[in-house]
Structure formats: structure tokens, C-alpha cells
Amino acid sequence: MIRFVGGGRVDLLAHRQNLRRFGVPVGGPFDPFVVELFDRLLPGPRTLTILECSGADATFHIDQPASIAFWSCAKGGRTTLALGETFQLPIGPGLRGWLAIRQEDEDLLVVTRLLSKGDSLSALRVELPDRTIDPEWLPKVPTAIRYLPNESRNFGAQTFRVDLRMDRKGIQLNGTLGPHSLELPSAPTVPGSLQWTPSGAALLIGPDGPTIGGYPSFGTIPSVEFSKVAQLRPIDLVEFLPISLDQLLDEELACRLIWRERLDWLSLF
Known about the structure:
Elements: E1 2-6, E2 9-12, H1 33-41, E3 47-54, E4 58-62, E5 66-71, E6 76-81, E7 86-89, E8 96-103, E9 113-114, E10 120-121, E11 131-132, E12 144-149, E13 158-166, E14 170-174, E15 187-188, E16 193-196, E17 202-205, E18 212-213, E19 217-220, H2 226-229, E20 237-242, H3 245-266
Parallel strand pairs: 12-20
Antiparallel strand pairs: 1-4, 1-10, 2-3, 2-9, 3-8, 4-7, 5-6, 5-8, 6-11, 12-19, 13-14, 13-20, 14-17, 15-18, 16-17, 16-19
């Protein structure tokens, strides 16, 4: 068993890709790359359970020997913890990190659940050596994020200040877009969609965000940039830069090749 004993916010994540057509948000981690990373670090037939930790360092207590994988701006890797040990995942103010375990029982959870202090989960011990990931691979705090602009509503490069109002549903971005009074019918939306609110703020839709929305969309954050989105901190100034589809496809292919090579290297140990 691994028990949450304190720190920032910790969400037990659910993956609901197959329920999207019913209007259920996709869920899963803010950084989608960690799913494949943890699959490599903690291989096995049992259920992979991911905890998303945000806002402050998260501390866990081990009530029986268990193997975990972890990933944040501060450190990443895999370790096996003994009975009675305490593990602290360093997050940093306003940032996000993730911890993964293999659970003995199938987890049928279909909603993301906030953990309370004292909540525990069954975790298996995996017979693998400890592994530390190269610090160069770890996520970084972003100063710029690229987006695909809406051709009919292209605001170009924009600098936004991240608002205190941010969670897994969405992140408010304050800038100079200006207010509007447009009334549009609701339309499908996806994680990464950039909405232009009547107040003039931008709203970046997160993994637990709505499946439809009536605000005008002026662009979309591609999946390859979501590792940066996950580390947006309140009050930070971040530049949003438009990118063409052709440029994005070339860069995304290169990024995925590099990521694949790193994952293959991890599988050797």
C-alpha cells in the first residue's frame, strides 16, 4: 500500500478516451507523454495507475514494499520502497509532477478523483533495478508555447499572464485580446483549445475540460506542446507563438522520434 500523507493537490487519474463520444472529458495526465513513459518504467500486466501532483511537493508513506515511477521538473525515474519508508516527490510551487504504480486489482474508476490525506492505494512490487532519468529529459518551466491559430481568427503572437484560476478543467490566461460580445452556438472542443472569453481573457481547455463550448476559438495547443502546458505557473508571463501546420508536423515528427529513442533506451534497463 502507498498512502498520501500531505503536500499539494493529488488527483487519481482516469483515462476515458473511449467515452469521449458520450460527452465525457478525456481525463488522463496533463502531460500525455507520461503514460508511455510509465509503461516503460513499470512494465507489467496489471493496471497502471497515475497520480497527478500539483502546487507543492507531495509526500507518500509506504505501508508495504512497493515499486513506483515518478516524473517532475526536479527528478524522474523508478525505485522500490521498503515498508515504513517515506517518499517525497518534489514539485515546486505551481508546477505539476506524476507518480505511477501498478495496482493488483483492475481499477474501474471513470472519473478523476481528488485524494485526501490518508487515502491509500494497493501497489505491487516490480522486480526491476532503480533507475534515474537524465535531468536533461525532465520537463521545463516554459517561457513560450506554440499554437495552431484559427485561420478565421488569427491573433498572432500573444503574451499572457497565467491567472490564479487554473485547474484540470482549464487555465485562464490574461492578455490584451480585448472584450467581445459574440454569441456563438456551442461547438465541440478538445484539450488544448484556446477560447476567447467575453471579458477578453483566454481560456486554455484542460484534460477534464468541457467537450463543447460557445466561446470563439482562436487556436489549439498541439499535443507535442502539452508537456509545457502542464508546467504553467500562476502569475508567470508566457508567450504564445503561432505555428503553421507544415512546420508543426515536421517538428512533431522529430520530437516523437527523439522521445521514442529515449523510451527504447529506458527499456534496456
